[in-house]
Amino acid sequence: MEQAVLKLVQHVLETQAAALELYARAWCNAPEDVVQDAIVQLARQRPLPERPIGWLYCAVRRGAISAGRAEHRRKRHESEAGRAVEWFEPAMGDAMDARAAAEALSELPLEQREVLVARLWGGLNFSEIGELVGCSSSAAHRRYAAGLAPLRERLGVACPKTNCPKN
Questions:
Q1: Could you tell me if 28 and 64 are in contact, meaning their C-beta atoms sit under 8 angstroms apart?
Q2: Domain boundary residue, one of 50, 82, 114
Q3: I need a surface site. Which of 50, 54, 140, 143 has the fewest CB within 10 A?
Q4: What would the pLDDT profile of 40-88 be if each residue is shown by its tens digit?
Q5: CA distance readout (Å), 102 to 11, 153, 164
Q6: What is the reported pTM?
């Protein structure tokens, strides 16, 4: 690194780092990271900006706003992921207990569960499911039948004669 760049970085760290962190804190919870990234960006600038401190404040502002948005998105995704997912519509009347059905479905092996969900809720045919999970359409059908039988048994739902998968 050039001597002028090293002196500039040292000057910024000694005189501006705390103020830049305080400035960034208005938008995000990790101002140290934002300031560090901005200083690295400044050190890579060729040629150096005429007003490096002003340039640095602009870079910190942009980085802090971006980091704040990312934090907000991450928190929203985490809170959504933390909520219980309803796999069945709760207002199905006497036809099925939604909680029991969701619990029964969650206890199936993943390869059976993903085929059932793709078929019943996704409306995919067995050929499409086979492509999705990396197996033949007949293997997808076997997984479907293998998952549907214990699901029906656990929920106490009889198989309608026209839709029963053959074992």
A1: yes
A2: 82
A3: 50
A4: 999 898 898 888 888 898 899 999 999 999 999 998 888 877 665 555 5
A5: 60, 14, 21
A6: 0.48
